[in-house]
Write a structure and sequence with these properties.
The protein has 3 helices and 6 strands; from the N terminus they run βββαβααββ. The protein is of the alpha+beta class. A 6-stranded mixed beta sheet has the order 1-2-3-6-4-5, covered by helices on one side. Helix 1 packs parallel to helix 3.
Length: 139
């Protein structure tokens, strides 16, 4: 089985990694922080960082023809779990705005730091995209 990198033009150009890797019809979504197109972490705290990071995940998913309901697993790494929990309702609203009422298997994991020191969150996941919607990138 060939593994294909999925790197949307709308996201920062990766160097030494891929935003996603397609294996068959399973898309492995690489960890996304709240980087914008200019390679800066968005300001505004955990809610805005969640919006950007999850939006980056969904951008990669869409590049391969996927939709939020194709997500089967999401892992969220957090530098401040109590901050995330304190904003849970707002984050839930952002999730529903971006993905609708679709909730895959999830895990939240506390960590002492992420690649960018100002990042509060990193999101990675896995999606299984139906063949009829699957868009294989050209290498």
């Amino acid at each position: 089985m060939t593994h294909l990198p999925v790197n949307p033009a709308a996201l920062p150009t990766p160097s030494g990694y891929s935003h996603g890797t397609l294996a068959g019809n399973t898309l492995y979504l690489g960890g996304q922080t709240a980087l914008d197109k200019d390679m800066r972490i968005v300001p505004g705290g955990i809610v805005e960082q969640f919006r950007q990071a999850f939006g980056n995940v969904l951008t990669t998913l869409a590049e391969a023809g996927g939709q939020p309901e194709d997500l089967v697993s999401i892992t969220i790494f957090l530098t401040d779990i109590p901050d995330y929990q304190a904003h849970g309702r707002e984050i839930g609203r952002v999730w529903r705005e971006l993905a609708g009422p679709v909730y895959p298997a999830m895990a939240g994991i506390g960590t002492t730091g992420l690649w960018q020191p100002e990042a509060l969150i990193e999101i990675m996941g896995t999606a299984v995209i139906p063949e009829e919607r699957l868009q294989r990138p050209t290498a």
